[in-house]
Design brief:
The complex is a heterodimer of chains A (about 290) and B (about 280).
Chain A: H1 2-8, H2 17-44, H3 69-78, H4 80-111, H5 115-129, H6 132-145, H7 153-174, H8 179-187, H9 192-221, H10 224-229, H11 237-243, H12 253-273, H13 275-288
Helix pairs in contact in A: 2-12, 3-12, 4-5, 4-7, 4-9, 4-11, 5-7, 7-9, 8-9, 9-13
Chain B: H1 2-6, H2 9-12, H3 14-34, E1 37-38, E2 46-47, H4 51-57, H5 60-90, H6 98-106, H7 113-128, H8 139-167, H9 171-179, H10 184-195, H11 197-212, H12 216-221, H13 233-243, H14 248-279
Antiparallel strand pairs in B: 1-2
Helix pairs in contact in B: 4-14, 5-8, 5-11, 5-13, 6-8, 7-8, 8-11, 9-10, 11-14, 13-14
The chains are: A mainly alpha (about 290), B mainly alpha (about 280).
Chain lengths: ~290, ~280
């Protein structure tokens, strides 16, 4: 409803009805071009693997139709169902841990004015710009040494490596919260812990959703970090998809198409069900980051 | 009040700080040190001075990756932003179906890099099959393949930011331009574009860093083929580490150089955003 209202506001310059119709037609063409790649993958996932690479644009025929064969074969070879479970577990745990821990940290370093807090703040900001390749090798060695190379340990790795951006975003919003609220809570006898959870957390809710969405997109789709940290026989979805490439660059295209479909479906369902938050969150994240 | 808060350092900061130290600070510092060492695992490292950096800068693959990444970044940044702005402009004219279009254009952004890479490998190989070749036959195919992929992935995202920027322009400004007899094109170039400069800065740097640091898409689409000719920096660092025995140190040196380059981009962005804040 809200979004609709926005469109009815007078925009920079509205177009006439005729131009509007022409634009709708052109934009529909562009929209179809945006959806076609996903449709092609879906269509090819039902074709026999021999008929995919050379003719991906041909519709399945009686001869090339493979039914659910690619799905059964692909799931068997990649263990995609278990991989999806692992991906879900890692994403949910990491996102909860990141949102909770970094919001607490951001609050403390914003409210307490000391050398430690400003050093920490600049360290977190610095961490945001360091590309993963810089720490890729050493990080995987540290994880190995600590015995954290499993789906529980990787949650700590995500908290540590993801802390920079999240602390920075929370700190930006906490600075704008008037301190008088906390003083009032204090007078009412709240401990700092109560103040944080009863006063600050409700105000931070929209930011928490933004941070959660940005981190969920990162962790769910992340390929390199889990590849280096996790055991190769306990893959996440992106790892399982990559395994289909096999040696010498040969790929079972049928299984690949089916696995791509299965990898995309949860994302689209998630997107369509909380689209409003995702688009807002991404825009807010971009402005702050 | 601050005093009361201070006592809770262990609860509010310590857990994050431990994870941050273990998985960022220590690996980062070790990475700097190891870039001056020869090693195969962390424990057998010995100091070799600048030799890793010299090897990195005289490594043909690395220089090629640097050039390829630069070319790709320039083309991707320009195309993504031009198309995203056009779409955002069209979607703020109050035409029918605006919401549906916005939803559709943004969707590819949520799909992960590995999956994106294989989707486009299918399509590009399908087109090239008509000419009897595949994407790894010529670096040109890989280059343009990645440009198309990047556009498909990022246009929707940048479009969202541009839409927010355009919607923030005060209506009076445009009305005034209309009354003064400005044509639509004049209003676009004299009012709309100058008023969304901050969105443009954000989008330029977002596409810039995203393209420069690209790994997954590159790895899945071409894996650097043919003969590492389409390897970007991140992929080249990866293959130096894990594809060439005894070159771990050089890989780490390349990673430090990569970090410095990304750092320079980030500082430039900071400079531009700060300057804008002073102006406004």
């Amino acid at each position: 409803m809200k979004a609709k209202k926005k469109n009815e506001e007078p925009m920079t310059m509205e177009v006439s009805k005729g131009t509007g119709a022409v634009m709708t037609v052109i934009l529909s063409g562009v929209a179809i071009a945006f959806v076609v790649p996903i449709f092609l993958v879906l269509m090819n996932s039902f074709k026999n693997k021999l008929y995919i690479s050379d003719a991906p644009f041909a519709l399945p025929t009686a001869e090339t139709f493979a039914g659910l064969g690619n799905y059964i074969n692909g799931i068997g070879r990649t263990g995609l169902v278990a991989a999806a479970g692992r991906s879900a577990f890692i994403t949910v745990c990491s996102v909860i841990a990141i949102v909770l821990l970094t919001s607490m940290t951001a609050w403390w370093i914003t409210r307490v004015h000391s050398k430690i807090s400003s050093v920490l703040y600049y360290l977190f900001v610095f961490a945001m710009i360091v590309p993963f390749q810089m720490v890729m090798f050493t990080l995987s060695k540290v994880t190995d040494m600590l015995g954290l190379g499993n789906m529980f340990g990787i949650v700590f790795v995500y908290v540590g490596f993801g802390a920079g951006l999240s602390v920075f975003m929370f700190a930006g919003f906490i600075k704008a919260i008037p301190i008088s609220l906390e003083e009032a809570a204090m007078l009412d006898g709240c401990s700092p812990i109560q103040t944080f959870f009863k006063v600050i957390v409700p105000i931070l809710r929209p930011t928490m959703i933004t941070v959660a969405i940005l981190n969920a997109m990162w962790v769910w789709n992340d390929y390199l970090l889990p590849t280096l940290v996790l055991d190769s026989d306990a893959p996440t979805i992106p790892m399982a998809v990559q395994y289909l490439r096999g040696g010498y660059g040969s790929i079972d295209m049928g299984a690949m198409m089916a696995m791509l479909v299965l990898a995309i479906v949860p994302i689209i369902v998630f997107y369509l069900s909380c689209q409003k938050y995702i688009i807002k969150g991404v825009a807010a994240g971009a402005v702050k980051g | 009040m601050e005093k009361a808060y201070k006592k809770y350092f262990w609860l509010f900061v310590l857990p994050t700080l431990i994870a941050f130290t273990l998985f960022f600070v220590i690996p980062f510092l070790m990475g700097i040190v190891l870039s001056f060492c020869k090693f195969t695992t962390v424990t057998n490292a010995h100091f070799v001075g600048l030799s890793n950096y010299i090897k990195a800068f005289s490594n043909k693959d690395f220089l090629n990756a640097l050039w390829f990444t630069t070319k790709f970044t320039v083309v991707a940044v320009l195309t993504v932003n031009v198309f995203a702005f056009i779409l955002a402009y069209a979607l703020t004219r109050g035409i029918k179906g605006t919401n549906l279009f916005r939803t559709t254009f943004f969707m590819p952004n949520l799909i992960g890099g590995i999956v994106l890479g294989y989707i486009w490998q299918l399509i590009i190989n399908g087109v090239l099959a008509k000419f009897g070749v595949t994407i790894t036959a010529d670096p040109k195919y890989g280059f343009w393949g990645m440009v198309i992929l990047m556009n498909w992935q990022l246009i929707g995202y940048m479009m969202i930011i541009y839409i927010a920027g355009i919607q923030n322009i005060p209506t009076e400004l445009v009305e005034a331009a209309k009354i003064d007899g400005a044509s639509k094109l004049q209003a676009l170039f004299k009012v709309t574009i100058p008023m969304v400069m901050s969105s443009i800065t954000i989008c330029l740097f977002l596409t810039l860093t995203n393209s420069f640091k690209l790994f997954d898409q590159n790895y899945a689409l071409t894996a650097g083929g043919p003969a590492k000719k389409t390897s970007m920096l991140a992929l080249d660092i990866y293959s130096t580490f894990y594809g060439r025995n005894g070159w771990e140190g050089v890989g780490q040196a390349k990673a430090v150089i990569f970090f410095v380059l990304v750092g320079i981009l980030a500082l430039t962005q900071l400079y531009f955003t700060r300057r804008k804040e002073v102006e406004s």
